Task: inverse folding
């Protein structure tokens, strides 16, 4: 018996089943979109789910792993419910991104690349979010927040914290 | 490969006019003509990627340099491989590679065989371009703790060859790159330990690695490549006959590693786990080093003179008292052709009986009997390298990827790369099933029903090749009479295979451009073994698939030289070259050749000899390199016979389970310590060469036999194995043209009747060996033993990938023991659940004949009601359970079907 099946016994395989059946006949061209769906559903890419994905589709697990580790968007470790990204591109840097990142770290209590213990937040800095006109920029769960100041940060994060229970 | 009628393309490379073939790349043409173009990511076995950029060349008319490995030649193309500009580009790429390379040549095992090193020298790249050297890499990776191989990312140039060979050739998909840019490394899925991944430990990744990044762990520190001496020889495991290079540290007389040259026949540099990692037995401290004589139940070392004297005297005494037929000899499919020839000659002359047989009796006796009756020749009709060209491959009763792994690669290549349709008929979901269009999971022992029904479909749907049947065969009507009433629905009842699946299989088989049948023990090891083979011969003939390329009936032979041992007459009914001992003309020919009277009465087979011991008809056995105390069926009975026999002589490299019973044991040399030939499964006679010195006073098997024969009063002597082969050629027409000098670089396939004959790629072209192919009507019969109330399961035995036969050799390998430590019984999940058996539980398996304790392997790869046990393990030996019921014609025992029961160990009866 593999270690995973004990560790991950709580993982719901039905979600995977739904994702795969929506794709119908799966081939390796569908790999990235399926990984995105899996990450959307599970919050990250659990190993046991990917192994089952491999088993059901005959896409080699090695290939899935190679793709999952190649792209920065994929996470093999549990990720927070909310992903907070801070741009550290040139324009943002000039406009004080360092201070923004520090403010985020302070209000979340975690460092770049970490996830909070209660699994609510993951914080990462990224090379560029592509919206230099709005610098400095923060992104929360895919939504842009431009022309940030440390005070703004505080407000946005506090409102996210207070909405925790509602999902 | 011979390619004829292909247009030729003329190209100029560096001013030389060269002729190439369509779709050939610039690099291939250059290398073929001795023009070196540097390359790191190229391996002819792989699809080119052009990623390392070292093979850039200048092609007239191209705006920029092109990668020679992926650029195809075209008429009148002009190529320059060494311009100033090209050299400058290559130099800068090389500098970039070296910049990340933390290996140091002085401490690297690959030193002398490393392409990076070679190009570094050629371009005189100085120390300043190298990364800081690191002697050891301590960070864990997927090979940490693995006994087979070691990956050192510091020496890795990220060419991806290891990943590609694992995907494209081995098709295991165990390896991948992970991460990106500077963090890229080779790993397994989720960095899992190699032995937990889909890896089969073939070591192909090592074989293709251009640097020392991937290396055999056990070879590390045992000698650098530059100091190792390579001796080309033939692998000693299965019948594929892979060509290997034993890499020897001559100072230590030790095999350091096994490599194989790309491009060699039949394996093209590919090996399996046994060939690459299974040679530790050669250097084992358990090798026999001195003759042993048993006195008062204990072995004592003896001199050769003493031991030979003793054996000669005892054999002569027994012969005088009870006649020559009271002595039997078991020759060996592990030994060379020359040794088998000498052994059977010794039994037939010095002893004077035809009681000589060997383990082919237990694997392909039914093939030899069946195919000889149908075609006139009992061997694989076609060649291994024809498989990738087949339209349809029908694999029945052969777990090819495990028992003949390198032929398994050819089948996968045919299906995945060339679009062949694969049909697998096997009770288990073997690996090949995932490549198959159809899997017919017939019940063990129901093969004739399945094949007859396929022919019924072919007949009723007019898919027969009537021209072929009329011109090339006889007795079709007798076979058709049985076939025409045997519907798929009837077969479905017997086989449990869906009738429509049988129909589909029949249509695919009959309609493909060429259909090749691959079979093995699943067909032969039955009381109906000969009939199973005859059915397959019928199926091939009814569709016109014998005597043409990429088709035929192809029994895969199990031992390295089981084909040769049969060819050389280690059989009780034939002299070398399948010449009947009962034919007076043949008999007198051999009497003349060997200078004495010979028995015209055929002798006893392996299992018959064991049974004859019980009746005191056999009083002495001379066993060369066989282990019946583990390999024969119904072991309790076999072991009792070995215990009761008056006189037992064993000649072996280890004190095997059988040698323990012997009165005298002679230590012999193993394949790596001797010269000779093996004949592989596609009839290719290939060289075996001495690479290391033998331990202690061990001697060549043929020399020991000659010395015993001479002492018995029948002088036998040869100068060398080459001399013996010359004698073989003189008495055996199928080997008539074979001699050591002709097979020095490439083996010859028999029949090869004279010195100018090029050998025979496929048999029965234009005409069958026996004239016309003969159909045999075959009716379905039940196996000898069927499951019932007390023994409700059907037990089959067989091989697995990692071990070989009785494990005498493979179980000495640390690599193999790490991945395959002990025996097991496969049982289907739902059956296990009912019996409260969990995966890994200790269980008892019981049959009418015995009981063994082993571990349960719970799987869905086997159907409900069936059990499977590998027979390699002396703890819980499967053959305690198997039945010694024999095929009436071939006398092969029914290893594949017996009734058994299974229960959790420690429970009540």
Result:
């Amino acid at each position: 018996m593999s270690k995973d099946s004990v560790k991950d016994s709580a993982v719901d395989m039905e979600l995977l089943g739904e994702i795969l059946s929506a794709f119908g006949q799966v081939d390796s061209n569908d790999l990235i979109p399926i990984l995105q769906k899996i990450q959307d559903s599970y919050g990250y890419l659990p190993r046991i789910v990917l192994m089952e994905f491999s088993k059901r589709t005959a896409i080699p697990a090695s290939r899935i792993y190679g793709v999952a580790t190649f792209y920065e968007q994929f996470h093999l470790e549990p990720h927070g419910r909310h992903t907070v990204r801070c741009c550290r591109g040139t324009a943002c840097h000039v406009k004080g991104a360092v201070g923004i990142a520090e403010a985020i770290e302070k209000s979340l209590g975690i460092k770049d690349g970490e996830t909070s213990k209660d699994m609510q937040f993951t914080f990462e800095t990224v090379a560029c979010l592509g919206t230099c006109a709005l610098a400095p920029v923060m992104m929360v769960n895919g939504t842009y927040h431009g022309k940030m100041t440390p005070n703004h940060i505080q407000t946005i994060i506090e409102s996210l914290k207070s909405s925790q229970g509602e999902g | 490969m011979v390619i004829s009628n292909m247009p030729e393309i003329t190209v100029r490379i560096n001013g030389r006019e060269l002729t190439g073939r369509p779709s050939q790349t610039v690099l291939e043409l250059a290398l073929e003509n001795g023009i070196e173009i540097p390359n790191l990511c190229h391996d002819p076995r792989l699809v080119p990627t052009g990623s390392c950029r070292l093979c850039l060349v200048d092609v007239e008319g191209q705006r920029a340099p092109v990668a020679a490995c992926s650029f195809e030649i075209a008429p009148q193309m002009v190529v320059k491989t060494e311009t100033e500009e090209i050299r400058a580009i290559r130099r800068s790429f090389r500098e970039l590679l070296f910049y990340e390379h933390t290996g140091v040549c002085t401490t690297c095992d690959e030193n002398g065989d490393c392409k990076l090193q070679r190009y570094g020298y050629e371009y005189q790249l100085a120390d300043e371009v190298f990364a800081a050297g690191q002697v050891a890499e301590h960070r864990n990776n997927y090979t940490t703790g693995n006994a087979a191989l070691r990956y050192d990312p510091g020496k890795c140039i990220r060419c991806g060859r290891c990943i590609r060979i694992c995907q494209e050739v081995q098709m295991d998909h165990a390896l991948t790159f992970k991460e990106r840019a500077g963090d890229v490394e080779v790993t397994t899925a989720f960095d899992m330990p190699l032995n937990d991944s889909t890896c089969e430990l073939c070591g192909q990744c090592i074989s293709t690695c251009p640097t020392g990044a991937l290396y055999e762990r056990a070879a590390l520190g045992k000698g650098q490549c530059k100091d190792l001496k390579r001796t080309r020889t033939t692998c000693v495991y299965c019948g594929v006959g892979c060509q290997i290079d034993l890499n020897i540290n001559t100072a230590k007389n030790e095999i350091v590693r096994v490599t194989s040259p790309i491009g060699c026949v039949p394996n093209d540099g590919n090996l399996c786990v046994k060939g690459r990692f299974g040679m530790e037995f050669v250097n084992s401290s358990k090798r026999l080093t001195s003759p042993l004589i048993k006195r008062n139940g204990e072995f004592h070392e003896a001199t050769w003179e003493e031991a030979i004297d003793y054996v000669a005297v005892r054999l002569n005494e027994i012969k005088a008292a009870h006649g020559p037929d009271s002595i039997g000899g078991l020759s060996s499919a592990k030994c060379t052709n020359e040794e088998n020839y000498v052994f059977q000659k010794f039994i037939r002359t010095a002893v004077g009986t035809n009681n000589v047989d060997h383990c082919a009796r237990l694997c392909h006796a039914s093939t030899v009997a069946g195919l000889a009756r149908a075609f006139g020749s009992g061997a694989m009709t076609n060649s291994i390298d024809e498989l990738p060209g087949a339209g349809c491959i029908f694999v029945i009763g052969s777990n090819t990827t495990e028992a003949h792994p390198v032929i398994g690669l050819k089948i996968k290549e045919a299906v995945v790369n060339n679009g062949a349709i694969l049909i697998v008929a096997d009770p288990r979901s073997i690996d090949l099933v995932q490549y198959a269009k159809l899997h017919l999971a017939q019940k063990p022992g129901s093969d004739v029903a399945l094949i007859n029904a396929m022919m019924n479909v072919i007949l009723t749907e007019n898919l027969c090749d009537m021209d072929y049947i009329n011109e090339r065969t006889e007795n079709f009507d007798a076979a058709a009479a049985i076939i025409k009433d045997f519907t798929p629905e009837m077969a479905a009842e017997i086989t449990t295979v869906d009738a429509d699946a049988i129909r589909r299989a029949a249509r695919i088989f009959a309609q493909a451009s060429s259909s090749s049948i691959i079979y093995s023990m699943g067909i032969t090891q039955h009381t109906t073994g000969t009939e199973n083979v005859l059915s397959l011969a019928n199926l091939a003939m009814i569709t016109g698939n014998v005597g043409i390329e990429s088709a035929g009936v192809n029994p895969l032979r199990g031992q390295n030289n089981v084909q040769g041992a049969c060819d050389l007459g280690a059989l009780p009914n034939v002299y070398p070259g399948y010449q009947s001992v009962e034919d007076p003309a043949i008999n007198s020919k051999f009497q003349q050749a060997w200078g004495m009277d010979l028995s015209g009465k055929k002798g006893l087979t392996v299992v018959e000899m064991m049974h004859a011991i019980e009746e005191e008809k056999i009083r002495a056995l001379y066993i060369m390199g066989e282990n019946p105390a583990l390999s024969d069926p119904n072991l309790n009975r076999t072991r009792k016979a070995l215990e009761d026999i008056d006189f037992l002589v064993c000649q072996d490299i280890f004190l095997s389970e059988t040698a323990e019973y012997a009165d005298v044991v002679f230590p012999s040399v193993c394949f790596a310590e001797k010269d000779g030939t093996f004949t592989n499964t596609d009839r290719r006679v290939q060289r075996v060469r001495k690479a290391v010195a033998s331990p202690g006073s061990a001697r060549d098997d043929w020399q020991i036999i000659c010395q015993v024969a001479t002492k018995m009063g029948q002088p036998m002597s040869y100068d060398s194995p080459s001399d013996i082969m010359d004698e073989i050629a003189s008495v055996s027409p199928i080997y008539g043209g074979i001699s050591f000098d002709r097979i020095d670089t490439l083996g010859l396939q028999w029949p090869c009747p004279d010195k100018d004959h090029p050998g025979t790629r496929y048999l029965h072209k234009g005409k069958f060996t026996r004239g016309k192919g003969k159909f045999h009507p075959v009716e379905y019969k039940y196996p000898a033993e069927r499951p019932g109330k007390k023994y409700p399961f059907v037990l089959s035995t067989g091989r697995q990938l990692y071990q070989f036969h009785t494990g005498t050799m493979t179980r000495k390998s640390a690599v193999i023991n790490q991945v395959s430590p002990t025996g097991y019984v496969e049982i289907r999940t739902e059956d296990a659940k009912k019996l409260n058996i969990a995966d890994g539980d200790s269980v008892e398996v019981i049959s009418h004949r015995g009981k063994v304790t082993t571990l349960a392997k719970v799987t869905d790869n086997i159907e409900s009601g069936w059990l499977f046990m590998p027979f390699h393990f002396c703890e819980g030996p499967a053959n305690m359970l198997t039945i010694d019921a024999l095929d009436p014609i071939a006398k092969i025992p029914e290893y594949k079907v017996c009734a058994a029961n299974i229960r959790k160990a420690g429970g009540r009866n």
Q: What stands out?
A: Residues 134-283 of chain B form a domain with the Alpha-Beta Plaits fold (CATH 3.30.70.20). The mean pLDDT of chain B is 94.
